[in-house]
Task: structure prediction
Amino acid sequence: MAKHVLGIIIGSTRPGRAGKPIADWFTSIASKHASFEAKGLDLKEINLPFLDEAEHPRFKKYAHEHTKKWSALVESCDAFVIVTPEYNHGYPAPLKNALDFVYREWNHKTCGFVSYGGEAGGTRAVQQLKQVTQVLQMASPAEAVVVPMFPKHLKDGAFVSDEHLEKAAHAMLDALAKLTGSQWPLMCSRRLRSIARASASRRTLPTRRTHRSGTSISRRSSGRPRRRWESVRGSRSSPTSLAGASPTPTKSSSSFLESVSSCGRRKDRSPWRPRTPGNPRARAARG
Ligand SMILES: Cc1cc2nc3c(=O)[nH]c(=O)nc-3n(C[C@H](O)[C@H](O)[C@H](O)COP(=O)(O)O)c2cc1C
Result:
């Protein structure tokens, strides 16, 4: 079976960074994994400037050679592992810059994390990274490598792991391999797109009325059938006040009206008028 190309990104670009020995240790494990062919993506070597492209990266109209090179590098990978420190409970600026430089090249790929720091082991940086990688339509396994109090693992500039960290690295790589070979990243991005489409269409509706339960009753564009009470209220509303609502009762809504008006509990009041404080008939009925 062909191996997945795994890009291992070193998020720190500082002189004397701890990220390099940690990434070297992780790369030595990843390169022995049956599913992956490890490829180093050292942001210090890649040396991107601050984002200097005029077009949004999703159009892939890159003006600069450094962007085209970075785009080709990201494109060549099927999965990524980001090795990141934590700076002020976030992740390093060069890492954010590198993520922002391209867009489609990240899409539908997977991303695991190796983080290091003090007691929290860089986990707060990873939480922030997850938000951003999700928008880039990447999927991540829950398994991660966390190195708290990392200086105790550094001896003469090399990273000395322990049994616990080795286990965590293997578990994360196994989970990443499963995710990379599955349809899940694609499904995640489709789900994201459908949520975005649904919320965009809701925003464009001219009027939005709310049932007393708090639910919007003008969500016709979502494609789901109306609920019974939506049909009732929609049919009684003026055509301009409810987007997409029929001004005359439909067959199903009139039969529902009949069944509701024949119900003893609600006989005394019109079924399509909700009992609201602003409804004079309801106020009168309440006395
Ligand atoms: C600007 C800055 C902010 C830092 N903030 C944190 C932090 O919020 N949490 C933490 O655990 N360590 C923090 N540290 C300490 C880093 O974990 C430590 O310096 C580590 O070596 C950084 O990784 P690097 O050497 O690969 O750049 C910070 C370090 C720097 C330089």
